[in-house]
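In response to reviewer comment 3 from the previous cycle, which asked for concrete evidence that the modeling workflow produces usable outputs, we include below a single protein chain processed end to end. The sequence was submitted unchanged, and the resulting structure tokens are shown without manual editing.
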Amino acid sequence: PRRRKNIPNTTTADGGTMLRMASSPTFEIFADDVERRSFTFFKDRTLAEISGYFPSDFWERLVPVASFHEPALKHASIALASLHERFEKGDRSILKSNKDIAEGGFALQQYNKAIRCLINPRRGDIKPALDTSLVACVLFACFESLRGHHGSALSHIRSGTQILTQVNDRDQELGGDDDSRQLCVPLETLDVVFTRLDHQQVQLLGSRPMRLPKAKPNAHPGFHPGIPAAFRSLEEARNSLDYQWNLCIQGAVDFKYLYHFKEGTETQEHRDASNVERTHFQAMFNQWMTAFQTFLDRNIGMMNSKSLIGAMVLKMNATLAAMHLKICTFQFLHEEQCWDKVMPMFESLVDLAAGVIDAQKAVDKKALHKPVFQLDHSIIGPLFSVAHKCRDPFLRRKAISMLHSAPRQEGVWDSVLTARVCERIMNLEEEGLGEVKCAADVPDWRRISDIQVTFDHQARSGEIKLSQFRSPHSDVREPVTDVFEW
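The workflow returned the following structure tokens.
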């Protein structure tokens, strides 16, 4: 990657070099007042909301710095801000296909300018810097998600994870980082950002997770295999949860490849080995929960409203991870009635999600009237698990209702679209059963076991393949395909 020149530097705590933005930026970088206004909205509104419930050096400092110096990121930021402003106002015209260029207006023009800057860099530049390309992937994914183009958003995420994985692999082969790099955004920060984005696509598509590099000397607090007796900050707890969950999913995938596992072919050897792996990861998450609870016991009285919501989100996602570990870490248990055994966990997920929604409304009165937009997963994924796997009719319908009534975009997850998918699953499972009063009223053969999602890259549509037995006497689950448009 090319080196940047003539940009002021600052020294980090570890002695490294970080690029910084001039304290009083001039406005010559903007072509007109419209660009200037959108960039101001990006700094004042978009960055504050997109980071969710946690402090984020990436969004609060590094992205503005990089966007100020890099034309591609400047145009991408302006495009995202323009779309975000319309999203908050409920402007449905942003939900158009990629072919409707005229409907995209100013936002799409800026988006296309950002792409052109990456393809044809400024004079004298050979190619975009590494961090510019990766941050652009993040901004582009946000832009496409807001437009409802989840296929395009996922493509940007995959591109970013592939680039980052290749760089990390090369650095490990060389025995260290490339000292010639001069980056606005450190790779250690991008490791964390893309791990979270990758987790979304893994849960949504069932894809193989990105393989994290071995612990780096400058890794973010908590973003490594070790778990302390007590976390020192909410950020450390969050980073640790993301890292441990990636290890868990990666371990599950590696296990399947090791045993060449296929549904219906598991042996006792498979189950015994699976139990060993599951026990290891359960102990790891128990250790995380202990460290997190100790942190809360010591600090909860000093936490502000936003941090308290963040703590609920972490507890919810830790509960989700523990639930999946308890039931089907390695997907050997295809008897869907096993999920009935974790009903208290489903109840906890619904209660925590309701707490997040209520707390957010209490903190921001405007949240009552506008949709939520943030990059990282929060409540949609856990509520999807409840609506998908919990057959208790009350809890299931409450989860779906929450997805409908609290519209939000969390990365590639759209709450309303997720609710529609869950309603379809519920209707398929309960059709012809009469009144469903409890989970036991839904027999195992009626239950959906697998979901495969593919998105159209040009339009707001996708295909969902579900697996279900046709009758109580069927031996093999058969696919049920639906096409969704939104």
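The radius of gyration is 23 Å. We consider this sufficient to address the reviewer's concern, and the full set will be provided in the supplementary archive.
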